[in-house]
């Protein structure tokens, strides 16, 4: 009965986190009871809205199955982890902010290991309708980033998770290390011409400060970024 009320995002996050742990070569029994933290970014909660659409058939486990906070709590509960467990919604940046908070928690000693995850499932047309009303959706279903033909973006689904440890701990434990995070950063656009319009200056300041935190100089050819993923919405205002 409880599984029937579970948001599919909970189910997929459990599966993906398990796969991530397996990929990292970590044994579940050794992690049980540890101070592992879970930081999950999410902004779509279509399933709970669908369950509430018919109030006569709301399942008894609706609260634990549909509440946004349970996306991370379900993971901590299943694996018996005692570290911080939280879900955050910062719209499109949710999973990256989750990663940022997980890194900070490790640096502060709030947890011994952390899972940074993100999920987005589209189970209702409501998001399409509201985005279309705001002229955010592309009529063609394709995003033309930085193009004169930019007329909106296309929505997508996905669930992902990464396992994070302090580098010294990972080396000590003989873990497989796929990448090293030298620095993360976060800020906000502040006041712009409208609530959803980006601020290029603020974003530039964030990039510069994060480079500095990582000890990198963008003017030094040896320190230049080899791969840069931009958040291009494919809208006339969003790409400015």
TrEMBL record:
It comes from the Eukaryota. PROSITE patterns: KS3_1, KS3_2. SUPFAM superfamilies: Thiolase-like. GO terms for molecular function: 3-oxoacyl-[acyl-carrier-protein] synthase activity; fatty acid synthase activity. Gene3D superfamilies: 3.40.47.10. InterPro entries: Ketoacyl_synth_AS, Ketoacyl_synth_C, Ketoacyl_synth_N, PKS_Beta-ketoAc_synthase_dom, PKS_NRPS_Biosynth_Enz, Thiolase-like. CDD domains: PKS. Residues 1-240 form the Ketosynthase family 3 (KS3) domain. GO terms for biological process: fatty acid biosynthetic process; secondary metabolite biosynthetic process. This is Polyketide synthase. It comes from Aspergillus ochraceus.
